[in-house]
Amino acid sequence: FKLPSDPFKYLSWCDIEEHDVRGSQLRCPRVREGPSKEELFFRGEEHAAKERKQVTDTEKWQKKLQENWEDCAELNLSFQDLGDLYQVENFQRILRRLIRVEKLWLVDNSLTDLSAIRLPRCRELNVNKNHFTSFKQLPKIPQIQYLSLAENNILTLSGISDLRHTPLESLILKRNPCEFQERYRQLVFSSLPNLKTLDGIPKLTEDCSPTEIRGFFRTCTIL
């Protein structure tokens, strides 16, 4: 049996009429575009196809104000397969408007390259379970403090030095091929001078290069 909400299951909140909910009021909004008419036909869901109508400039402006991504500080867009070709244009449009976002989760979205995106205020970024193969494919994140890249396909540590001048304190690279590189932890810590924790483990004596060890013994690490 179909639920009363069934006709709306492929719509974003701002496509539903007669409400004034804004994007900055939602933590986990659906932004994924619905299936094409052709795909809905093969699914036997023609009833869910949204009729395309002529949209006026006023309606476009009202939708932009309702989305108001510019005011969003925390946002979770995980598990929406936003890396699909069908989704990329709308997804990147949203990312470019996140000029004030500080915490952003994009887990399991089949993402491959966000290098054209800049997130000027982002302090915490979680892009676990995507398809990144290099640090060069990450967005510009000059204020990043906590970065999680677990379960991607990052092959080497090449490009990690691009994060050297950020305040990055915690980095997670678990279950990436680069984790098996010789002297992995030493190389990461030597590339990122502000880093305190790697893969959930604080910086240890054996993670220091020989020139750092003398100064390291002046500190105390409690595990």
From TrEMBL:
SUPFAM superfamilies: L domain-like. It comes from the Eukaryota. Keywords: Leucine-rich repeat, Repeat. The keyword Transmembrane does not apply. PANTHER family: GENE 29133-RELATED, LEUCINE RICH REPEAT PROTEIN. This is TILB protein. It comes from Psilopogon haemacephalus. The gene is Lrcc6.
